[in-house]
Design goal:
It holds the Pfam family Mob1_phocein. InterPro entries: MOB_kinase_act_fam, MOB_kinase_act_sf. Zn(2+) binds at residues 53, 58. It comes from Pseudogymnoascus destructans. This protein has 108 residues and is an all-alpha fold. It has a single domain (3-107), classed as Butyryl-CoA Dehydrogenase, subunit A, domain 3. Helices cover 66% and strands 0% of the residues. The chain is built from 5 helices and no strands. The protein has helices spanning 3-18, 36-57, 59-64, 68-84, 98-107.
């Protein structure tokens, strides 16, 4: 599947889960389902693929457009959130961006 198609499908899937009251209850007092932690891990794992694709295939264009700092800041927030909430399933989670992630975690 081409990357733009994957990303579009992913964003629709994420939004449909966020909009699903059975998955993301919005009312006070309504408990989250037992499957919530594993579903959130899956969301973040799939979103990671988008960052990995951008860094591995489009980074020169990002730099040319002067967007490097924005991408790095966004990704660092993503990494720190995952680290804070233990959403990564080990070092293998980070794949080709492992060195970048390690440097971001050390610099925080």
């Amino acid at each position: 599947m081409p990357a733009p198609t994957y990303i579009e499908h992913l964003m629709v899937w994420v939004q449909s889960n966020i909009d699903n009251e059975a998955v993301f209850p919005s009312r006070i007092g309504v408990p989250f389902p037992k499957s919530f932690p594993s579903m959130i891990r899956q969301v973040f794992k799939r979103m990671y693929r988008v960052y990995a694709h951008i860094y591995c295939h489009h980074y020169p264009v990002v730099r040319e457009l002067g967007l490097e700092a924005h991408l790095n800041t966004s990704f660092k927030h993503y990494v720190l959130f995952i680290d804070e909430h233990n959403l990564a399933s080990g070092k293998d989670f980070w794949g080709p961006l492992g060195d970048l992630v390690e440097s971001m975690l050390r610099s925080d």
